[in-house]
Amino acid sequence: MSVSVICLTPKNDKMKEIKKTQYLIFYLVEEKPKTNVYSIRNKRSGEELATISWYSSWRQYVMETSFFRGEIIWNDGCLKEVVEFLQWLREEHKKKRARNDKS
């Protein structure tokens, strides 16, 4: 079975690599005043697998996939890397808020 993946966030020179893991590369794709948007890409193919953005209802960063991307298979290693990145983002967000509260 062939699976096609549509890249919804085209890779460009403005994207900043934030973290590279065994399977994935995390890129900063949009800086907003309070939060950011990140792209999760396959380390081998460069295809976008998901995005990470702030979900205000839950007051935390979440991973979002789209049915437009087709079927994406995640193993425990990939999911662990995503969870670790989300935990890092949460800590960075807390630090940023603490700095802003002191100002």
Largest sheet: 5 strands, antiparallel
Instruction: Report strand order across the widest sheet.
Output: 1-2-3-4-5
Strand content: 25-35%
Oligomer: single chain
Overall average residue pLDDT: 86
The rough form would be described as globular
How far the N terminus sits from the C terminus, by CA atoms, comes to: 56 Å
Helix-strand makeup class: alpha+beta
Helix content: 25-40%
Number of domains: 1
Rg, Å, rounded: 14 Å
Counting H and I runs of at least 4 residues, what is the number of helices? Answer: 1
Low-confidence stretches: 1-8
Elements, N to C (H/E): EEEEEH
What is the count of β-strands? 5
How would you explain this protein's 3D organization?
There is one protein chain. The protein is built from 1 helix and 5 strands, in the order E-E-E-E-E-H. It is of the alpha+beta class. Helix content is about 25%, strand content about 30%. The chain has one domain. It has a 5-stranded antiparallel sheet with strand order 1-2-3-4-5, covered by helices on one side. The N terminus is likely disordered. The longest helix is centred in the last third of the chain and has 27 residues.
